[in-house]
Amino acid sequence: MRPVFVQFRCAPGKTYEVAGAIYDREVVSELYSTSGEYDLLAKVYVPEDADVGHYLNQRLFDIPGIHRTLTTMTFKAF
């Protein structure tokens, strides 16, 4: 499993709804409310053999109220 971080920008007034829907799907290991350009930050473990884009699209990105996402890949540096 490789960790991937996903930030979510939500429609105004929809952050709590989106967060609840994310948790209901049982895909993320951690979910935080954040300040700045994005409203939520999630840590997702993607299976090594899975395509990250397809994995996230099929499990998270169709949630109503999400306006934009930013995915940050991680790499083993040490």
TrEMBL record:
Domain Transcription regulator AsnC/Lrp ligand binding stretches: 6-76
Pfam families for the chain: AsnC_trans_reg
Family annotation (Gene3D superfamilies): 3.30.70.920
Domain of life of the native organism: Bacteria
Name of the protein in its database record: AsnC family transcriptional regulator
Organism (species): Paracoccus contaminans
